[in-house]
Design goal:
alpha+beta; single chain
């Protein structure tokens, strides 16, 4: 497939790099959830899974050695090992295409050709950003749930004490870590959960045949406990939280998403609480600040927060107020995005639910297939494939009978995963939390007035 088979107008666009620049403009048009991911090259084939291992540190020693035991070859010492934990990274191929009929396009062929490349670039950027977002909030299917996992509520009040409780979302309750490996929850691998005010052992999670979860990409179902759950604990609306669940913050200390009420908008104290949780786990910053991804209605609520106004009192000339946008504040880099998960109102009086995510370095891993863009075509013809930010753009010459239709396509081979930090426990970091996923905090709130459209 020689590049000479293309019309002269398009040959110039390809050879001079105009096409690549149009595609790259779309990919870099805005910051998004993908920006927090650590990139790794994935050498395996499509559809395969790579298991990565993360090791822990060893517990500090604060007890002096006994001088009388300083004998023999071991000097009174006993060997101790560091722990490990594993996460899996699977890759798949994503892509799309658009056709350009050179005859019907008329004299506008070159501009439409570049416009198609730009549109493909925007689509690719949004697709990868959404995949990253879905992994952060929902987690991989074979993992321990995302940063919304392990935190739900009872949806049906028990008629009498029983071992099964219906909940809004079972993500984060299906699997747990045993000696660093992800295993299904069961009688041999029970997960401690709090339902209402009682503590129980979870031995199973079953998804509903018809999903009625209100959470973004949630999975409704029932949880099976090893002992009866009391009616008072199994009352609709009560919080259900796994002992290893990520930290979720809500204004006014609301216990569940459904409990959010009018006035529960994002405040600077909620963001600071998220930062404190990350710092308690010693999560590294990203280029000197934690990232906070939020939508514009949450950002507007922040500007209406009394503590925020007090902080900026007298700063009427600040760029933040002039532009209506926070760049960096109190160790947090605020990144407005239109890709933040939206949820319809659970209570009509409260309004739609908005979710911000405060994350540090290492919260997300992106695996990019090493063979993306590979071609056996001689180097002289490689201009048909452009690789931008690990996304391949392929321009195919017209192969139809009338030699009129050019295909412009893009594809990406890769995947995202959430590494856990369960080995960073209180023996290593005294202030650490018990969460598997420690590098992010979700902040749930309403919009600016509680009734803004989602």
């Amino acid at each position: 497939m020689s590049i000479n088979n293309f019309p002269a107008q398009l040959v110039a666009a390809i050879q001079q790099g105009y096409l690549a620049r149009e595609f790259q403009t779309g990919l870099q048009s805005k910051l998004g959830f993908r920006g927090v991911a650590d990139r790794e090259v994935f050498p395996n084939a499509i559809g395969e899974t790579l298991t990565k291992t993360r090791k822990s540190l060893k517990t500090p020693v604060t007890t002096p050695l006994n001088p009388t035991a300083n004998t023999n070859f071991d000097n009174g010492l006993t060997s101790s090992d560091w722990g490990v934990e594993q996460y899996t990274l699977s890759i798949n191929m994503y892509g799309d295409t658009i056709d350009l009929n050179m005859v019907t396009s008329g004299v506008g062929i070159a501009s439409q050709f570049l416009a198609n490349a730009h549109t493909n670039g925007i689509q690719a950027m949004q697709s990868l950003d959404r995949l990253a977002r879905n992994t952060l909030f929902g987690g991989a299917l074979n993992g321990v749930g995302g940063y919304l996992g392990g935190n739900t509520r009872v949806v049906t009040t028990l008629g009498s004490a029983g071992t099964s409780v219906a909940v809004d979302d079972i993500r984060g309750f299906q699997r747990m870590l045993i000696e660093g490996q992800v295993v299904a929850v069961g009688s041999a691998a029970a997960l401690t959960v709090t339902i209402g005010s009682g503590v129980y052992s979870l031995v199973g999670a079953t998804a509903d045949a018809t999903n009625v979860s209100t959470a973004p990409d949630g999975v409704s179902g029932s949880l099976t406990l090893s002992a009866n759950v009391s009616v008072s604990d199994g009352t609709a609306g009560n919080a259900v939280v796994a002992a290893t669940a990520p930290y979720v913050i809500r204004p006014n200390n609301r216990l569940t998403t459904a409990a959010l009420a009018a006035g529960d908008t994002l405040g600077i104290q909620n963001v600071l609480a998220g930062v404190a949780a990350l710092r308690r786990n010693n999560v590294p910053m990203i280029n000197g600040a934690y990232h906070c991804y939020l939508d514009d209605l949450q950002l507007l609520g922040l500007f209406r927060d009394a503590d925020f106004k007090y902080l900026y009192r007298g700063a009427y000339g600040s760029e933040e107020y002039r532009n209506g946008e926070v760049i960096e504040l109190l160790g947090v880099r605020f990144i407005p995005t239109t890709e933040a998960p939206q949820q319809a109102a659970i209570s009509a009086a409260a309004g739609p639910i908005h979710r911000a995510l405060v994350v540090g370095q290492g919260a997300l891993v992106e695996g990019d297939f090493a063979g993306t863009g590979h071609s056996d075509i001689p180097d002289a013809d490689r201009a048909l494939i452009e690789k931008i930010d690990d996304v391949a753009m392929v321009t195919r010459e017209p192969l139809d009978r009338l030699r009129q239709i050019i295909a412009q396509s893009w594809y990406w081979i890769g995947g995202f995963a959430l590494p856990t930090d369960s080995t960073a426990n209180t023996s290593i970091i005294p202030t650490a939390t018990n969460s598997y996923l420690k590098r992010g905090v979700v902040i749930e709130s309403l919009g600016t007035d509680g009734v803004a459209a989602a």
